[in-house]
Design brief:
By secondary structure, the protein is mainly α. The chain has four helices and no strands. The termini are far apart.
């Protein structure tokens, strides 16, 4: 029988040595933002119901969303929405059969991250400027 060297065999990858490819990180982030959008829709529904019910209820929601913590939550929700939408466009490009090679897929993943950050900041500059 052949002698095996159990002590020299590599262990399966773990977080200390395994590097996630950018495409995998963006894929996981796409799933996380999709789940976060469910909670963001609840906030949007709360705002709509308050607007439809009474001035007092709407004032409460506006006060919550106007607080710095509420603004931070809205900022995160808008980033999640934009990031998820750009990820959907990335998947549409792949579904059309383009960008499937590794360098292009990596560029699309970086573009997804950079684009979502840039568009979110631009959106909030416009929102704050319009006030």
């Amino acid at each position: 029988m052949a002698e095996t060297r159990q002590g020299e065999r590599p262990l399966s990858p773990h977080l200390q040595i395994y590097r996630w490819p950018i495409t995998m990180a963006v894929s996981v982030l796409h799933r996380i933002t999709g789940a976060a959008l469910y909670f963001g829709i609840l906030l949007f529904l709360w705002w709509l119901l308050a607007a439809a019910s009474s001035d007092h209820a709407f004032d409460i929601v506006q006060a919550v969303f106007g607080h710095w913590l509420g603004q931070l939550v809205l900022f995160g929700f808008s980033w999640a929405l934009i990031h998820h939408a750009l990820g959907g466009i990335r998947h549409l490009i792949w579904d059309a059969g383009y960008g499937l090679d590794v360098p292009t897929a990596n560029r699309l993943a970086f573009a997804n991250i950079a684009g979502s950050i840039a568009l979110t900041i631009l959106l909030w500059i416009v929102i704050l400027w319009a006030r």
